[in-house]
Design goal:
This protein is α/β, with parallel strands linked by helices. It is 42% helix and 14% strand. A 5-stranded parallel sheet has the order 2-1-6-5-7. The protein has a two-stranded antiparallel ribbon with strand order 3-4. It starts with a strand and ends with a helix. The protein binds adenine.
């Protein structure tokens, strides 16, 4: 998957290209990041990329021309690219939206700085606005990185086994079940309880059942809003009841 990153700070994307899952995906050519800095397209000697908002008010906006030329330069590399603008005013990102976006071969991700961009540029150049949550961060770059990371994980062959993507939080709309690793006993964490014996039993069917039950219970307790979207089948209803009974006994 190809990403045209339109940003005044291309260096920050090193965090994607140099580390971890996304870094390996770059090395293996599964994803490709190309950079288009609006400052390189500014026409004056100072390379100005911002200007005052009409009507006054605090802060500056990004100028249209350098931004438009940077987007168009990205379009010249991949003509059919969708243009995504990262903004708290956008559609909220979730796993479903990620799956839809992962179907595209190319995306141009536009990161804003300052107080944002001219509305006309959004209307004419941008296909989709995406928000990573109901809070404001200082620019679109971190949001674009969240998007690239989430998409990369969905591409075939990126995460070790297909299964671990599927097991991850939010797959099937449930939160992840609790996990434990060695040692089986940690004296200082006695209050947190023991490793659930079923996990040490080697009985894979029972382990899968326990994990499913915990995922349902945790989602019910922490994110009941997710369960309303989730169609519990009879087996899951029973698992959740069991979870709640066990909880009330403890
Ligand atoms: N830019 C600033 N805040 C943002 C957010 N919440 N999502 C996407 N882009 C942003």
């Amino acid at each position: 998957m190809w990403f045209g990153m339109v940003s005044l700070f291309p260096e920050v994307f090193k965090a994607l290209s140099d580390y971890g899952v996304t870094g390996r995906a770059v090395d293996r050519g599964v994803i490709e990041l190309d950079y288009f800095n609006p400052r390189d397209f500014a026409l004056d000697e100072q390379h100005t990329v911002d200007d005052k908002p009409y009507g006054g008010g605090p802060g500056m906006l990004m100028k249209v021309q350098p931004m438009r030329d940077a987007i168009n330069a990205a379009r010249q590399v991949r003509e059919l690219s969708r243009v995504v603008y990262l903004s708290p005013c956008g559609q909220r990102l979730d796993q479903e939206e990620l799956k839809k976006l992962a179907e595209f071969d190319d995306l141009i991700l536009v990161s804003g700085r300052y107080e944002g961009v001219d509305e006309r540029l959004l209307k004419q150049e941008v296909d989709l606005e995406v928000s990573i949550g109901d809070y404001v961060i200082s620019g679109g770059e971190l949001a674009a990185m969240v998007l690239v990371d989430g998409l990369t994980r969905l591409l075939p062959g990126v995460v070790g086994s297909e299964e671990s993507v599927e097991r991850a939080s939010f797959f099937h709309g449930l939160l992840d079940y609790p996990q434990y690793t060695r040692p089986a006993e940690i004296k200082e964490y006695a209050e947190a309880g023991d490793v659930p014996p079923v996990l040490l039993s080697g009985n894979h069917l029972e382990i899968a059942r326990w994990r499913h039950k915990q995922a349902l219970g945790k989602t019910y307790e922490r994110r009941p809003d997710l369960l309303t979207k989730y169609d519990l089948d009879e087996k899951e209803k029973k698992l959740l009841e069991e979870y709640l009974e066990e909880r009330s006994l403890n």
